[in-house]
Design goal:
By secondary structure, the chain is mainly α. It has one domain: Leucine-rich Repeat Variant. Helices cover 71% and strands 0% of the residues. The chain has 9 helices and no strands. α1 crosses α2 and α1 packs parallel to α3. The termini are far apart.
Length: 140
């Protein structure tokens, strides 16, 4: 998995530095969202997505993707390791680049906070607690 991780990091750098149509590369990055369903791949995928969060171009792409909504399901998974890792990734995506996130929230305010409110009323105590701690999300 280390080789795959290094390859994805190189892809991230190429996509950010040479913005063209790299749909297949972006699809690889989006496939990391689905990896949270596998106990074996979830933590590695989360690490890759957090590494991608270093680049505003990729954060914008990830936030705008339809797969982003899956995070609100993953944070409620019964496996604590996967749920907490997905929370870490969600936080990283939402706090690293304020201008990108602010633009996203302006465009998707109702949808985002509808999903986030679901976490605040979760039956899982840890999910509720972590959701309340995420008050550092930029709102303007």
């Amino acid at each position: 998995m280390d080789f795959m991780y290094q390859c994805l990091l190189n892809v991230c750098i190429v996509i950010v530095r040479i913005p063209r149509t790299y749909n297949s590369f972006l699809d690889i990055i989006l496939s990391c969202f689905g990896s949270y369903q596998s106990k074996d791949a979830a933590l590695n995928a989360g690490s890759m997505l957090r590494e991608c969060a270093r680049y505003p171009t990729l954060v914008k792409y990830l936030l705008e993707s339809s797969s982003f909504d899956l995070f609100f399901d993953y944070v409620e998974l019964p496996n604590f390791d996967i749920a907490s890792d997905s929370f870490s990734t969600l936080k990283e995506l939402l706090t690293r680049h304020e201008a990108v996130v602010s633009e996203y929230l302006s465009a998707h305010y109702v949808k985002f906070f509808g999903l986030y409110e679901r976490l605040l009323y979760s039956k899982n105590y840890v999910t509720r607690r972590l959701s309340l701690k995420r008050s550092d999300i930029p709102t303007s």
